[in-house]
């Protein structure tokens, strides 16, 4: 009565090895939970990605903050007008396109930023893109295999042509040579555009261009469009002059001014000789 329980405890509870196994399992569970909660690609404070982001932040503060704000929140010109739009959430792909094509930094304000030689190196562009991408989620720079059309088939090029004529010719012309838009804006020629930048433009919708997300055009659709544009870039001009490939209007003007002009000159010459 009231005596202490003298039943011996199981041997495994007294074993130090069992205690170590329990602690090890707890650490494994904690590690798995942390890996699920921490975003993929997160780097330590001194990791290469963090260093690249910090380098991009410094470049942004020097070359971009005057228009886009020190924290990419957007800026004004001092008179209440927007100097540069906010970049939070535009993603790395938008930065790679705008800076990689030389459109940014802009040399002057205007209806549209023209393409020019890039100011930054590839490493600096990657750092700027990494910094802007760290501010908020947005479209990432596409992998090479996504826009590689070196092995595109004739069927894919033909399908890309159909998609291009349906979605792009209203602005870029059926030959990809660009065209005028209202208020001094224009759709640029695609003859010097790289597949990577074309893909990024469809992803991000720069300036007046609409966004062609993966819900609007599937990645394979985008690749087919790029294959068609590359085929246009590779086309030769058998007649010697492409005349902008603008169609019968430019060809008719050429025939009128040159052809009819030559006939008039010959007629005048014949009349002078006869006299």
From TrEMBL:
Enzyme class, broadest EC rank: translocase
Positions of the Cytochrome c domain: 51-136, 155-233
Keywords: Cell membrane, Electron transport, Heme, Iron, Membrane, Metal-binding, Repeat, Respiratory chain, Translocase, Transmembrane, Transmembrane helix, Transport
EC number: 7.1.1.8
Cellular location(s): Cell membrane
Membrane topology category: Multi-pass membrane protein
Reactions it catalyzes: a quinol + 2 Fe(III)-[cytochrome c](out) = a quinone + 2 Fe(II)-[cytochrome c](out) + 2 H(+)(out)
Transmembrane segment boundaries: 16-37, 253-272
UniProt subunit comment: The cytochrome bc1 complex is composed of a cytochrome b (QcrB), the Rieske iron-sulfur protein (QcrA) and a diheme cytochrome c (QcrC) subunit.
PANTHER family per the UniProt record, alphabetical: CBB3-TYPE CYTOCHROME C OXIDASE SUBUNIT FIXP (PTHR33751), CYTOCHROME BC1 COMPLEX CYTOCHROME C SUBUNIT (PTHR33751:SF13)
Name under which the protein is recorded: Cytochrome bc1 complex cytochrome c subunit
